[in-house]
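# nightly structure sweep
# worker-07 picked up a monomer target from the shared queue
# config: single-sequence mode, recycle default, output format = structure tokens
# input follows
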Amino acid sequence: VPPQMLELVAGLGEVWSAQTLSAYLNSTGVRSEWIDARDVLIVPDGPLSGLGEKGTAMDTIEPFWDETAHRLTGWWDKTVGEADAPFLVITGFVCSTVQGRPTTLKRSGSDYSATIFAKILDACNVTFWKNVSGVYTADPRQVPEAFPINSMTFDEAMELAYFGGQVLHPSAMVPCIENRIPVLVKNVFDPAHPGTRVYGRGDSFLRWDDQVDEWDDQMPVKAITSIEKVSLITIAGTSFMGTHGVAKRFMEALSSVGVNVILTSQGSSEHSITVAVADTDGKLAMEAVESAFQLEIARNAETRVTMLEGLSILAVIGEGMKNSTGISGRFFNALGRSKVNIVAIAQGSSERNISAVVSREELSLALRATHDAFLMKESTISVSVVGGGEIGTAFVRQLVRWNTDEGRDFDLPSLREVQYLNIDLRSFCDSNKMLLAQKGLPLSKLQDNITNGVFNLKDMADGWEKQGKAVADALTDGVQMQDTDLDDFIKFTDCKEYPHKVIVDCSSSTDIAS
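# output follows
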């Protein structure tokens, strides 16, 4: 399918949706008019074609502002005139070139459409209705403890969008920055939730007079984000020390083949330069750099270009970092405690971003460990219990009690002054059976299934079988019961999603203790 035809067809959904919504509003007595953005929103007929990559920050189309405003004014004079202003339903995503060819604003273009028209109409704010309650401190799919951010600056939002955040697109924020229009991100399924407010600038020389600086009273880090699939391209050689223009040639080689540099890391010795690129660009980038430095490589065997694959970028973002000491130490300490190896690091001069390159296999663990270190008032610990009987039963009952505020106050009151401890009992085994739950066992239901005063998983299983219940029905979805295998039990316990984990031995077995 030709890219132009794909854009034409893809934009019809927005056109039909706008017509439908406008008709519905009119049917309820609310006067509404719909605008086909292809008649008013005009963009250059540039080289970009097709829909672009989902969530990409690269494809940005600058509209012809004067022509678009002129056409919108003409539509208003013809359709509305001197009558009271109706509700306007405008198609997102679609537009037209100067030559009149229907096209689109590429992926995430509907948000961009909203801010373009907000700027032209001098709107007081823009609300993006999403399926989440604002911008989160991390991707909830990878960090279940993530929560919505109350407010952030446009600079923080731009950093977050660049490093993989998909709630806001960088190009969509530009018109709002230019006209100082607040952006609200709210949940269409939970309209009462306040969501996230994006407004203001981070740097002192860009700061707006009416913005309220909130980062002094908040945690210095606002969000943890990542780019999952990257490769590192490194050129190294002793001949580069003190040589001018190496970095320029390196970057020009990548630019010549259209490779975007995501992150740069260079030591002061100038012995080597490392950049991170998208995984799909790794081979192309390596070949381009080798070609640019082929003379140096031929003359000196120690000069070489290398590529590391299977990596990810982890970034901590926040305006408050510039006013706080020890942020890098906490970041690297969190990764070190979780035994996550750092391959490369980078920090921007704005001090609102610190990035580390880690193994892709360790990304989930790194995200949770970093989020736990900076943004959690509660620390989550994964607990596995070996041994039933009276001791194991008593321990689980203590965990049930701990999950109540009364238990926390009575048992360890000092933790309330420092931070809460959230305990997930993820696995439990005795000599016959073991229970495994990736997201944690339901403690109260587990306690309700105690037979004869003690935990006996075999008796539990027999009882559920007589009642015709599966394990998931008796406890919760995702719980598995298997015959005891200590190797499998330990492998399950050593889950990389949890930075903090412990095995509690409640058995009398010397084999377990050893």
